[in-house]
């Protein structure tokens, strides 16, 4: 017979009340023994009994296991556990200690003075020092958050006899006068990517790089700017033998980095906490600043001199600690200060162009000098979200961009407006540097764009507002002068001639051109109304569609038809974050995936009301590619977690690993072969005749950079691969037969036409869609390129009948092309209205539905038969456009409802 449970001493403390309620849960289900609870919950009877003992605070996992075993409300108890953890930890460290006494630096970079607490990279420091001693120029590459800056500053610099450390900023040549005159002192330039993100002068950038190449120098560069470096011939040449890569820490390196700083500060790290941290961080290249921040916050909540798993869980874990800190600071501000915080953090980031967003260093003079701004800066600095000195302000680490959802939302909304603001800020700086010279003011289209953005934003500072107002006044004065000159000239030259001409032709012209004038007026109004319809559709889809139909009714032009099509597309929120890829199975099931690590399956037989069929989970990083086997029974997925996963009947049946980030994967047409391209440039193939037991059949290495896209011809004989090394390569039987690299093509996507004769390439240069005749793949012939897109084309897809090619671009449009004759392609339609770049495009297997996804959580669906789409539009528009709405949008034309 089991021993009776020890009575609790009801002293009114929160921990005892927690234990009392746990015991009450057990009694509510009949009071089973702890041995029986252990069988249900997966923990020992002793562990579960101690959880309800009232002496020690149980871990979150043990608490939830106890609650599940008692059929309790898991979500409610998880919230209660976190509340109690916060309360108990607040009593452990009543006052936050000085950050300078902490054994961890949080988001900050380890500096030379932090060398005594910089652990885990000893071997890498030795290797880097040896390379610096051998080579005159060394480039240290690593992803954001891999610790390359700390490696350089706290690892390398203390071991160099003489050095100077700099960051480029927006004018890197200003650094050069401070460089040493001797050739022995090493010039160290950290955050070298700023020469691309902040420096706007290409000539200054080139001169600065030439200056570095003439000295002993070490540069630290984010790895996603490797391509930028390779585009400068002199720098690319210097990189041949001088690259040093910083990757993820090993488990042992992580253990040293976690435990030894604490030991040096006379603290200990619980073994289960160390094991949890290592498991979370192992193999993750960009996680180090998040790990350091989580450790710093755990140290502040330590129990005595012990860093505990409970304290770590209370701060939100590795992924949640930083966001929790940032949200706590944001929540402490009033509404006005929160607006200032949003504007501040937007200024502290540079929006990426085919790269991740990066941090930006600003001058304090860029901000308004008021109390609200001072409060925001003080609190963000105190929480180590921002670092500042007398000359600059910047976020502590770019990890804040990746992990704070609110920051990402601020940057993802109205990116075009933010770019307008950055250009306006730069123009204001130039204007003030030139003593407010009128010639530096905005005029014309730039002023109109800036004014339009300023009317819907509250982010302008006093100095920027003064610039816009001065520009407006200057343009108004110039217009007045221009009108006066035109008026005088008109009097001198044309008074008599005008009277004679008017009197001679007025009657004839009025009669003959009355209809033409009406038609031209309607056409002009229709063009404007079509543009308004696309914009209105974002906020009010029904009204946007009706305005598009009204425009098409006034003047049936290509532009008005495109407006109808753009507003007819069904917009669906498909994921929690950006949707990177979409593909159809042979039975018409749609699969989508993206940044939130999940794959959703959809029934889109009714384009207006897609139905989610299921969700596949298993990836631990963003999912970049999807491909169905021809029979539609097996789905392949690949992504940033370095795996290719196979799914059948909504269950994972195999996982292929060891490739680094995998952006491309596809089945051969016969379904017997799976091909994937890796971030290292490898292309691997597997025999998947038994998809539950894939067999690796080949690994080919022809590309020198990440493989972004792979595609098979319909007969399965030719494989095309596209890479960040600017080439498209064609393969047969595992051997390369042709490389399309003569024009240094920026390759983003590939697609073979159904007849196998044409290869379409989504590109990023002045010819965004390139076509090749690959009837003989050993002798491809380039066809005329397709122009019209104004930015990178990231996705291309042929319709099943091969008559139509769809292309999606960063210019936020999808264009459809008639490719019946690939040598004489014509554009069919331009679908616009999106607020962000297009990520992927797919046709349904019956060719009736076109789907495109965005770099946001949405996807759009449209009837691919464009004529039928326009014809059925009236039935989808709902109620007719009222006369009042008509007069508000079309005041100069009699009321003629569109449907």
UniProtKB/TrEMBL annotation:
<keyword id="KW-0853">WD repeat</keyword>
<feature type="repeat" description="WD">
    <location>
        <begin position="662"/>
        <end position="689"/>
    </location>
</feature>
<dbReference type="InterPro" id="IPR011659">
    <property type="entry name" value="WD40"/>
</dbReference>
<dbReference type="InterPro" id="IPR027417">
    <property type="entry name" value="P-loop_NTPase"/>
</dbReference>
<dbReference type="InterPro" id="IPR001680">
    <property type="entry name" value="WD40_rpt"/>
</dbReference>
<dbReference type="InterPro" id="IPR019775">
    <property type="entry name" value="WD40_repeat_CS"/>
</dbReference>
<feature type="repeat" description="WD">
    <location>
        <begin position="700"/>
        <end position="732"/>
    </location>
</feature>
<dbReference type="InterPro" id="IPR049052">
    <property type="entry name" value="nSTAND1"/>
</dbReference>
<dbReference type="InterPro" id="IPR036322">
    <property type="entry name" value="WD40_repeat_dom_sf"/>
</dbReference>
<feature type="domain" description="HTH cro/C1-type">
    <location>
        <begin position="21"/>
        <end position="77"/>
    </location>
</feature>
<dbReference type="InterPro" id="IPR050505">
    <property type="entry name" value="WDR55/POC1"/>
</dbReference>
<dbReference type="InterPro" id="IPR015943">
    <property type="entry name" value="WD40/YVTN_repeat-like_dom_sf"/>
</dbReference>
<feature type="repeat" description="WD">
    <location>
        <begin position="740"/>
        <end position="782"/>
    </location>
</feature>
<keyword id="KW-0677">Repeat</keyword>
<keyword id="KW-1133">Transmembrane helix</keyword>
<dbReference type="Pfam" id="PF07676">
    <property type="entry name" value="PD40"/>
</dbReference>
<feature type="repeat" description="WD">
    <location>
        <begin position="616"/>
        <end position="647"/>
    </location>
</feature>
<feature type="repeat" description="WD">
    <location>
        <begin position="786"/>
        <end position="827"/>
    </location>
</feature>
<feature type="transmembrane region" description="Helical">
    <location>
        <begin position="489"/>
        <end position="511"/>
    </location>
</feature>
<dbReference type="InterPro" id="IPR020472">
    <property type="entry name" value="WD40_PAC1"/>
</dbReference>
<keyword id="KW-0812">Transmembrane</keyword>
<protein>
    <submittedName>
        <fullName>XRE family transcriptional regulator</fullName>
    </submittedName>
</protein>
<dbReference type="InterPro" id="IPR001387">
    <property type="entry name" value="Cro/C1-type_HTH"/>
</dbReference>
<keyword id="KW-0472">Membrane</keyword>
<feature type="repeat" description="WD">
    <location>
        <begin position="572"/>
        <end position="612"/>
    </location>
</feature>
<dbReference type="Pfam" id="PF00400">
    <property type="entry name" value="WD40"/>
</dbReference>
<dbReference type="Pfam" id="PF20703">
    <property type="entry name" value="nSTAND1"/>
</dbReference>
